[in-house]
Specification:
Strand order of the largest sheet: 5-4-3-8
Number of domains: 1
Amino acid sequence: MSLKKRGEKIPDMQQYLQPTLILDSNSKEIGEIVDTLIGNRDHESKVEKIYYFVRDEIKFGYNESDSIPASKVLNDGYGQCNTKGTLFMALLRAVKVPCRIHFFTIDKKVQKGIITGLHYKLAPDEIIHSWVEVLFHDKWINLEGIILDHRYLQCLKRKFDQSGYFEGYGVAVDGFNEVSTEWTGEDTYIQSKLIKKDYGLFDSPDDFYGKYSTDLRGIKKIFFKHHVREDMNRKVEGIRDECWLFFNKN
């Protein structure tokens, strides 16, 4: 499986700039945050500013559905790979930066520690995962690093202090203590080591969800929304809070 797209012909960019129902880049909420964030920044500064906003100001957490619109993710103030990706894309398209989305399945071990016990045993072995690809200096870069906010990742590193391979708690990387999701204008990864099936590239998440229905339905949806998801978010917030005092003191 190739994780990079290098040297390919660049097509008409309009397909990577359009708003959709999920990528509501033309919404009032998205417009207001873009006006606040961007101003008269140049192209590179726009992408960097949006990258850090989505990574850090939108905390790592689990929304009620993968297919909610970007403005809802913004209002929630938290998200995971698929929903943070939605917001990232909508903000980029609002400032005319071409982007697309790459979908996969990922081993549920990436959530080990956040989801536990019977809930973990009953979870599907593979779950839907994605990262956003941004056209930057005439090449596509893969930006998976927006998923975990800096505070949460630093707290994980302090909690586990592991230099080798690490998986769980939203992470799947080599060299855990040294891993960085800082903006460099190149690819960033934080979960890619547990990727399984490659669904390929899509112009928008709408295209993917229209072809592959992934949201839970019925009683499973209600149970996830009101029990499993809330428990997962409590665990994430607990990790984020338990060591932050340490950083504030040092």
